[in-house]
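Work Package 3 (structural annotation) set out to generate three-dimensional models for the target panel prioritized at the project kickoff. During this period the team completed the workflow that converts sequence records into discrete structure tokens, so that structures can be stored uniformly alongside our sequence database. As a representative example, we reproduce one entry of 568 residues exactly as it appears in the project archive.
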Amino acid sequence: MPSRFPSLASWHARSGGSDGLEPPPHRPLSAHGGFRRLYLTLFLSLMTIFWVGVVASWLIDDWREDHYRQRLASAPMALLTSLVAGQPESSRDAWLSAYEDELGIRLALSDSETLMLGFMDRRRLARGDVLARQAQGEIGWQLYQRLPGEDDSILVAHFTGLSEQQPLQLVSLLRQWLELSPDDEREARFQELRSRISLPMGMGSGTPPGLSNSQLTQLNAGHVVINVVAERSSLGFYAQFSGGRWIMVGPLSPFQSLPVVTIAMVMGLMLTMLGTAIYLIMRSVEKRLTRLEQTTASFTAGDYNARVTIQEGEYLTQLGLAFNTMADQVQAVLSSQQDLMRAVSHEFRTPVARVRFALQMVDDMSESPGIRRLLKGVDDDIESIDRLIDEILTYARLDGATDGLLPLEPVSLEVRDIADRVVETLTPLHPQLTLEVTGGQDLHVHADVRYLQRALQNLVSNACTHAGSRVHVRLLGDERMVYLSVEDDGAGVPAEERERIFKPFARIDDSRTRHQSGVGGYGLGLAIVARIVQWHHGRITIDTAPDLGGAQFILSLPRHYEVTEEYV
């Protein structure tokens, strides 16, 4: 064996791996990479939704806090506006000044234009709501509420801080305001006030529930009592009228923000459920698309009977139906073309045979050298037509076996015997070339002897057509695969033409097809090789010959031929 025999690893690398079962033109692109990108996109989308949800929760928490402030402010503002509205306009300023010091709250009357309130704020005030705004340039909060029964008189209360005395003073003021009414009108005034506020308030008689003896003593003495309920983190304010009835404001609970951990857990749970649902749906779609991809790969590889299994109620049913309809149309077109090709080829044989018989008769009757020379050229042309017909029928038979397996008869063959027979057959036809076979001693493969010999003969004939002086057949194998390499020292095959060259009737530029007078095939030899290799579950690739510098065709076949559903 020559010292420069290529290694098995280098052959494996140049052929793209020894496990491929189809020629390069028929290798489908896998959709799994696309689905991985889709799952990554979905994951990133869910993470985006998660953080948007967290931010939205913080915004909702701010809204809840603002609503809580307005709810707390509704009771004192309703009381203060009722008290101010009950004062004559001439004495309102004096009243506000007097109670500013007593309550520790800055009070003023104004209107919406002076306060430069927006449209939505004016609408809220018109409904009787309380506005709570952080004071601009000052410490504290400003509360706004329209006086009852007056269109554009707005009470402004500026709280710089909240002390323990302020709620006590306000409850005491509430009691005083209610006591100004007769007993029979007191209840109505209380209910009217309660309808304007958002805090719980109540009026009753007897002993208020939940108060201790000391608290009851203070209540009977006319003090405002604060009752703290530790279990509920709330407090209530009690005040008693002179007649024994009492009022209660509360219970009031402090504002509690939504815990960030709780928000994250809820969002995480929701996203997990949503992500699981999306994953299950996408997984189902992926399985169906994978089946469609496999069917498409089989159809592309030559199994024109491959169809998508359709089930009622499945996703992508319309896509499967569209594929099956397309496959039926493609199969019908190919079948009609193959039938036409076979019919025309068969019909050509009879007139070609008659023409050849007539030429032989004319040749026997004529002694003129010029006529004999012309007849010899015509006979060569007829021989070319006959070979073309034979190749067309062979390719049609290989390409048209769509209703089952090609009738192969695989047996155990010694590859070196096949290669030697091919070289012995072609050597006399190309005396100007040196044809040699190396390697392959005791190398066996399970294949159809007739078709394997035809494939190797086509490759060697193609190499002889384009070689300058040498054609080299190299044989090698491993535990799974057998490699047959046919090399020449010609011009080689351009990289951009290496896939197209296996298509029927494909011919590349003049550097390889017409560099010699009268040389050039029909473009079916390599197409036949590709079909034979495909039916044997092998691979045919093209490279540059490492030693001779021309073209190198590597035919890779599995050692054991197995019938698979893909080719049934």
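The radius of gyration is 49 Å.
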